[in-house]
Batch of 2 targets.
Target 1
Amino acid sequence: MNWKVSHRKTKHEYNPSFNPFEFEVKEETASYEVKKAFFPYFHDPVHHIKLFQGDCIEILKKVPDNCVDLIFADPPYFLSNGGITCHAGKMVSVNKGKWDISKGIEDNHQFNLNWLGECQRVLKPNGTIWVSGTSRIIHSIGFAMQQLEFKILNDIIWYKRNAPPNLACRYFTH
Ligand SMILES: C[S@@+](CC[C@H](N)C(=O)[O-])C[C@H]1O[C@@H](n2cnc3c(N)ncnc32)[C@H](O)[C@@H]1O
């Protein structure tokens, strides 16, 4: 597979006097879906908070390079493929929505490369990204980060004291 990897620039044009809170998602040039504008569905001008809803790649494309300090992402795990999970103590099928249906490991990986590449572009040179995931997707995220030449600093494993029961009995634990 030829992965489409958009490498970050090796040298950053970084202006430290730039105020990161001043960046605006350019609402008038938005092209998401039917070229409708991006409107924040939450805006708190006192604390400089704006929340946008839409395709993350389309929205990130409106953000200038090198202006974000920290990104936290919880991308799709691509779990909804007829498998089972435990909900409220019962075995149920996993169906989180269309967005969670796997398109195959290669397309899932290209999706991770695409959004991580956009995140890398908007991050400041000393910015950081946190990504949460499950064993289904986290290895692709790690590989994509290596392809994009991110420096991986930490792997954090969440110890859930109240983890769901091990229904399939094929894992050491959940
Ligand atoms: C693992 S869930 C994250 C759930 C979230 N942490 C929460 O507690 O609600 C992944 C989320 O990514 C969203 N998503 C999927 N594809 C997306 C895309 N292209 N752009 C933006 N969000 C997307 C889904 O709607 C879903 O809410």
Target 2
Amino acid sequence: MDIKICCICHHAVEDNEGSKLTVKGCTGINDASMKRQDNVYAVPGNCFHIACRKTYTNANVIARDTKKKTLVQTPDL
Ligand SMILES: [Zn+2]
């Protein structure tokens, strides 16, 4: 039995919390990765956490995360 690793967070995926990527699923993740200027690269057959993909590909979360990255030097007072 091999350990399945989430292609987004790189942690182990349990059978009940993840799934395998289809070609279409990869497109969504790689598109989000590009928008985030991230180095995540998904290929069909990769495993992922359903929760990770939901967050990772969510347009609102992407906007929030990319904004956070550019404002990293701002002190939060
Ligand atoms: Zn994950």
